[in-house]
Every structure is written in structure tokens, then in C-alpha cells.
Amino acid sequence: MNDAKPAVRVGFIGIGNMGMPMSTNLLKAGYWVTAFDRAQDRLDTVVSRGAKQAGSIAEVVGQSDVVFTSLPNDAAFRAVALGAEGVVNSARSNLVFMDTSTVSPAVSAEVAKAAAKRGVRYLRTTVSGNGVVAAAAALVVMASGPRDAFDEVLPLIRCIGRREFYLGEGEEARLMKLAVNLMISVASGMIGEALTLGRKSGLDWAQMLDVLASSSVASPMVLYKVPPLKERDFSPTMSAILQTKDVDLILDCAAANHVPLYLTSAVRSLFQQLISTGGGEDDYIALVKQVESMSGVV
């Protein structure tokens, strides 16, 4: 048996809810992984799984052929990508830089311009799924950027996802992720309203969820949310605060492209009400609780 590790050296920056399972799956596939995160407990965990700890972003970049990032927002991504000792400024020519974060097309384009000047191959590698899906290596990966970089890192992508799509040379992956998250956000409001209508009208909670899971509206999202909803378990897979951040990116993109998003705007208000009443750290599907509260359902 050949136990040699793959020759590609991988760096991973951002070992959070998504970065932890993705980096773990790369380790399981036998890749050398050098990791960095500002939270030492996260680093300790991924090191216990076989990663090498780095002391800085620059150290990760210097020891890697491919660098992944998984970051919470535009500001964090810009700092990691474009800081004085960030990925782009620390990179040698031809490095592949794969960002999996949900960020705006505008900041992504800013990073793309800087990367091109340094000869860095920047691949927007957005993912659809949550931490549980990521742990199962079942993410859907949407990529855009240099085609040669995509073809080169396809084995890595297949370590973290069950399906991949190459969408183009520019910001297509960012835009596709926003379109996907728009549907998830609006669907969460729809689910909240449907369940509240049924509950207040006298339908049995568990039976109602069983019917929805067997009906024509039983998308993967609905099927995934039925078990925790039955238990009224709103532990976060994606918090309402983070989902609202994504909705804001969607609305900004819509404004820039002159697209009216009435449903998305209404759902954004529901999320804000949920956050303002203390539910910001609950799962985004806790919109059902917000609609119930507004409807006088106890």
C-alpha cells in the first residue's frame, strides 16, 4: 500500500464552523495542511487532527501551494487577503488562492485585481451547505476564476464537496452564492408563516411537519430542518445574525443591478425583529418563533 501524502501542500486560514470540517476532510484525504486562526482553541483542535499550526497568515502562505480561506464577512476577508502580511502580499507567483467565504462581489473583485498584479491565481470557491453538510464532505461547490486553477485543484474540491460547478472567469461564483442564499432566506420566512398558520389554526405540529416533508415543497432544506423543528431545537447551524449579513449582501447586489427584491426585503425585516428580541444567535429557521410571537401563538 502506498501511504505517501499528496504532493500539494495546503494552507487553511479561518478554522470556524465551516473551515474546521473542510480542513478536517482535507486531512482525512491525506493532504499536508498548515492552519491559522486567531482562536487558539480552534487551532488546537485542527492540530490534534493532524494539521500543522502556523503563527501567521504569511507563514501559511509561505508553506503552501494552495491556500483556502473561510471568513465571516467582507472586512475579515479584505484584511486577510490584502493586509500587509496577507495572502496576496505574501504569495509567490502562481499560488492558488481559494476563498470559500460569503462576501460581496465588490470586495471579491478588489481582491481579484490585487491578486492578478501579483500573479496569484484567485479562485472564488463558494459553498452551499452548513457545518454538518461540510463535515459529511457533501457541500455543493460553486467556483469561478482561472480555469487552469480550477482544473488543478479539482481533487481538493472533491474532498470537501459532493458536486462542483465551474461558472466562469470572474465573480460568477459570488453571484450564484447570493442567489442560492436569497432562496434559503425567503424559504425560511415562508416556512415560518406556513407553520404558524397551521399551528394557530389547530393543526398538529409534528403531523404538519411530516406532511411538508412528504409534499411537493420538500426541498433538501425543508427535509434537513424538519427533525430539529419537531423538537423545536433552534441551535444554530447558521445563526440569524449571519444569515442577515448575507441578506444585506443580496440587497446591496440587487440595488447595484436595479433589481426589486420585495420578498427578500420583507424577510430581512423579520430577521431584524428576531435579532432585536434576542434571537440573533438562534438558527435562522427561528423565524418561525418570530412569526408565532407576532401572531400571538404561545
Count of the domains = 2
Query: How are the strands of the biggest sheet laid out side by side?
Result: 3-2-1-4-5-6-7-8
At CATH level 3, the topology of the largest domain is Rossmann fold
Q: Overall mean pLDDT score? A: 96
What's the architecture of the largest domain, going by CATH? Answer: 3-Layer(aba) Sandwich
Structural class computed from helices and strand pairing: alpha/beta
Share of helix among residues?
Answer: 55-70%
For CATH, the homologous superfamily of the largest domain is named as: NAD(P)-binding Rossmann-like Domain
Supply Rg.
Answer: 20 Å
Characteristic terms for this protein:
single chain, 298 residues, alpha/beta, Rossmann fold, N-(1-d-carboxylethyl)-l-norvaline Dehydrogenase, domain 2, 2 domains, 8-stranded mixed β-sheet, 14 helices, 8 strands, 55% helix
Describe the structure in your own words:
With 298 residues, this protein is α/β, with parallel strands linked by helices. The chain has two domains: 9-170, NAD(P)-binding Rossmann-like Domain (Rossmann fold, 3-Layer(aba) Sandwich); 176-294, N-(1-d-carboxylethyl)-l-norvaline Dehydrogenase, domain 2, CATH 1.10.1040.10. It is built from 14 helices and eight strands. The chain has helices at 19-28, 40-48, 57-62, 74-82, 87-90, 105-118, 131-135, 147-160, 172-200, 205-214, 220-230, 240-256, 262-279, 287-294, and strands at 9-13, 32-36, 52-53, 66-69, 96-99, 121-128, 139-144, 161-166. The protein has an eight-stranded mixed sheet, with helices on both faces. Helix 8 links the parallel strand 7 and strand 8 (161-166). Helix 9 crosses helix 13, helix 9 (172-200) packs across helix 14 and helix 12 (240-256) runs antiparallel to helix 13 (262-279). The longest helix has 29 residues, at 172-200. It starts with 8 loop residues before the first strand and ends with a helix.
